[in-house]
Structure prediction request, 309 residues.
Amino acid sequence: MRNHIQIFFNQHHKQPEIVMGLLLAVGAAIGFSAKAIFVKLAYHYQVDAITLLMFRMMFALPFFCYFAYNEERKTSNRINNKTFVIIGVLGLLGYYLSSLFDFIGLQFVSAGLERIILFVYPTIVVVLSAFIFGKPIGRNSIFALLLSYAGIGLALAHDVQFSGENILMGAAFVFASTITYALFLIGSGEMIPKVGAKRFTAYAMIVSCFAVFTHFAATRDLHAFEQPIAVYFYGLAMAVFSTVIPAFLLAAAIARIGASHTSIVGALGPIATIAMAALFLNEPISGLQIAGAFLVISGIMMLGRKKEA
Prediction:
């Protein structure tokens, strides 16, 4: 009896932490999903992809410089030059190229389709791991892949029906973003245990920020800064509400409810983006889009359960 009482007490004692973890995970999913909305709203002012990305990185850089400085103060374990080079390459893949391809793609596809395509990055990780590391792809994983890509096909059909031109080109850019992000994730799995998640993320982001600044300086002049105040606002909003804050919310959620439960809540991302796109961008919602999102989420959940097992 005493043991049962103790178990009951522990379950209810932890319940507020679980609820808070779920709320943090929901906040992270919504924050990351809002990025596409900010980008599409900024495009109303005829700003180009690299200039808008530069504004995002310009506002995000001070935060990550602070994180890097703060993490270095806490540790005596210095990062060697070889590790710095690897982190830099991964940063270029995951936060420079991936972001650039994504921003370009968003010029041509709906916010809902963009989020659905980006959400299939775990399937890319599975396929790339099979080619790079020789990891076998089981029948359940193959079925999950088929579900996910059938979902993309339905969502793509929705965009073709309502948007028309350049949809395939935009989808290709977003898919390229997904591939580069998957490569980043595979490499980060090797680096994070060596240097720590916060330090790795901070340095990878700093490298990508300077890559974006270099790209901007090489292809644009100072007149590109002459943008409406709204473009600056959307760049700041992306940096704060769709980059920095969601990253912290995600880390806090994982600490409370674990990575697998947090990833399940992350499945709200495509649905949240579709809903916000309808609300703020007046993007139409169709049965094709909802069915496509459902198939993609189902496929990713299958992969998640396999990984957890």
About this structure: The chain has one domain: 32-308. The longest helix spans residues 2-43. The radius of gyration is 20 Å.
